[in-house]
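Reopening this ticket.

The earlier resolution said the output was attached, but the attachment link was broken on my side. Pasting everything inline this time so it's all in one place.
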Amino acid sequence: MAQTVLDSLDEVRSAVGRHLGTSDWLAITRDRLDRFAAATGDRDHGYLALALTNLFLPEIVEVRGATVGVNYGTGNVRFGAPLLAGCRVRGTAELVACDEIPGGVQTTIRITVEVDGADHPACAVDSLSRWLA
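Inline output:
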């Protein structure tokens, strides 16, 4: 998939409301599920879907013109379809907000983790990032 590149903080500001793109599909293997469950105790795998947003976001968008980008946390998180061994997932992203902060901007990017063939996403998360000039 083609990555969206935002070359400046002004481009970030002007991209609010824009669909940023879609990541490649990722196969969910039994080994990945087992290792995640062993490391976290999450046997329902909802938090694996959340954690994968950190993998998908840089595949989807790159912000240039910032001296640093910082994962600031999350806003709303919603879980939907379970992740099962053998399924495929991908992330889609939309820039839903861009707020001014001292020295830069804070973005809210809604990342939806889609499950191939499922009626509902595995999760949707409002990912908060800070981009400093």
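Reporter confirms the inline version is readable. Residues 16 and 95 are 5 Å apart (CA to CA). Strands lie at 4-6, 19-22, 26-27, 61-63, 68-79, 88-101, 104-115, 123-132.
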